[in-house]
């Protein structure tokens, strides 16, 4: 049985997404699905993430990001193809 194809996506989430636990909740979602990559706050008020892993799992985290944790108010989610194949998921410094 072959493994599902792996993909990587760069995701930028806008709205009320800083100061509401968004990075930590997204990291929990990604780790629960065994994804690799990272998440960080950006100085412009957005949250940016790189998600790498099986396509269905990456898409599930992107779908979750469209609403985020309870205190968040997501206004938009931009998704772009990316390159990355990390097996760990980290919270990294603000860009």
SSE layout:
Elements: E1 6-16, H1 22-32, E2 36-41, E3 47-54, H2 55-65, E4 73-81, E5 89-91
Parallel strand pairs: 2-5
Antiparallel strand pairs: 1-3, 1-4, 2-3
Describe it for me?
This protein is an alpha+beta fold. It has a domain at 19-46 and 55-73. The protein has 2 helices and 5 strands; from the N terminus they run E-H-E-E-H-E-E. It has a 5-stranded mixed β-sheet with strand order 4-1-3-2-5, covered by helices on one side. Strand 2 (36-41) and strand 3 form a beta hairpin. The longest helix is centred in the N-terminal third of the chain and has 11 residues, at 22-32. The chain is globular. The N and C termini lie far apart (41 Å). The relative contact order is 0.34.
Give me some keywords for this one:
globular; 95 residues; 5-stranded mixed β-sheet; 5 strands; single chain; alpha+beta
Query: What form results from the Cα inertia axes?
Result: globular
Reported for the largest beta sheet, the result is: 5 strands, mixed
Count of β-strands: 5
Oligomeric nature of the chains: single chain
What portion of the residues fall into strands of 2 or more residues?
A: 35-45%
Please report the distance between the alpha carbons of the first and last residues.
41 Å
Radius of gyration from CA coordinates: 12 Å
Number of helices: 2
Parts with pLDDT < 50 across at least 5 consecutive residues: none
Q: Average the pLDDT over all residues and give the rounded result.
A: 95
Sketch the topology as an H/E string, one letter per element: EHEEHEE
Proportion of helical residues: 10-25%
Give the neighbour order of strands across the main sheet: 4-1-3-2-5
Q: Structural class, from secondary structure content?
A: alpha+beta
